[in-house]
Amino acid sequence: MQDRYVGDVGDFGKYGLLRHLMISHQRLGVLWYLAPPESNGDGRHLSYLAKPTEYRQCDPMLFDGLRKLLETDQRSVAAVVSAGLLPERTVSFDDMVCATDQARRDRAAFAERLAYREEWAARAAEAVDGCDLVFLDPDNGIGGKSFRPHGSKGHKHAAWNEIIRLANRDRTLVIYHHTGRSTPASEQARRLIEGYREKVVASGTVMAIGFRRGTHRIFLIASHQPDISVNVEAFSKRWGAHWEMLACDHG
Fold first, then answer.
1. Which domain holds residue 64?
2. Cα-based torsion angle of the residue sequence 153, 154, 156, 161 in order, rounded to the nearest 10 degrees
3. Domain with 204 in it: what CATH number?
4. CB 150 within 8 A of CB 189
5. Predicted TM-score of the model (pTM)
6. Which among 79, 105, 157, 212 would be 20 to 30 A from 116, CA to CA?
7. Considering its fold, how many domains does the chain have in total?
8. What is the pLDDT of residue 245?
9. What is the 8-class DSSP label of residue 179?
10. CA proximity to 16, closest of 167, 235, 195, 215
């Protein structure tokens, strides 16, 4: 996550999902995977704010709140929390996920980045210890086969070992994953679910829903709540064509 993404249509979708899921949970914890800003054009999907008849009805309070943040130039995760757009008592872990110098490629730099990431993951897990709904928000999602947490782009992904550390039967995990263009979203969703089953836990429900506005993105949801799929389907129905159910495995 980067502060400059705050308020774009993807932000609107993910906060809407989290706010809905809190119907059946007690406390939300958000691991922002906060990273330094880049200079590309991401975070500019703001035209939805000019279409209130299409979007505002999904979550009026959230829509109005994000619009106000943009109008007052408050694009930061800290502003989202202070504005009350996330549920009361939300734990917001916004420590930077990487050391400041990501350009160095020498052995010492790799060791420093790896040590920093391991310490960051420990602090993150401790911060959300009392939360029964935890959201992971890395820039690009779950790391693939070539992922290295100490690499120059390692901060843009969540590591499977970090997810394993957070998973338990009394907690629902929601993980952001940016959809690639090489294969259909449904196939990517299936692979994510298979990866979760293989690496994290074989029981419970694991599902993937896709947000179709701006750039397509997947939200992987893993839970032992018996009604989690009904809850998510109700959310998808309320938001209409903005979301799509991609895959669901009840274990």
1. 3-249
2. 160
3. 3.40.50
4. no
5. 0.91
6. 79
7. 1
8. 93
9. P
10. 235
